[in-house]
Amino acid sequence: MPSEAEIIIAFIFKRSGKVELSFSEMYLTLSMDLKWFTPDNAKKFINNALKQQLLFKKAEVLRPGFEINKINVPFGFNPAGKNLYKDEKKPTEISIFDEIVEKISRKNRIKKEDIYEKIKKIEQEKNINSDVATLLVFKEFGINLEKFYEKIEIK
User: Fold this and answer.
1) pLDDT tens readout for residues 80-100
2) Which CATH number fits domain 4-67: 2.60.40, 1.10.10, 1.20.120, 1.20.950?
3) Distance between CA 71 and CA 61 in Å, rounded?
4) pTM for the whole thing?
């Protein structure tokens, strides 16, 4: 019997009709399109799937680590497991980036989804990682970025 994580991965790849997806395609599908996870938790889910070898990263694309056609995705499937993405150190931690997006959203009366889409667009246009694109969007909205530089450098 497949795990819930395997069903999620099979669903994403079957839905896309592709054999490989970029990291951002996968996490944005999980968070923005399907709204199954926050963007931060979607990234954690993907990273955990990589650690468990449910996904493999080759160059800049992700491929399933199992035969997705052997996985039956139930009609109306919606993940129920809350432990699919938890960081064991701080299971209820909210990403500082997500907090800032929330503040920008409230202050400027902009939908959070629109802010995340703007981040995605910059990431793709400039061919940079999502954290750097996020910092560029925050700077555009006047957020002081100094406290984030070290965190991004570590990655």
Assistant:
1) 765 565 544 444 445 667 777
2) 1.10.10
3) 21
4) 0.55
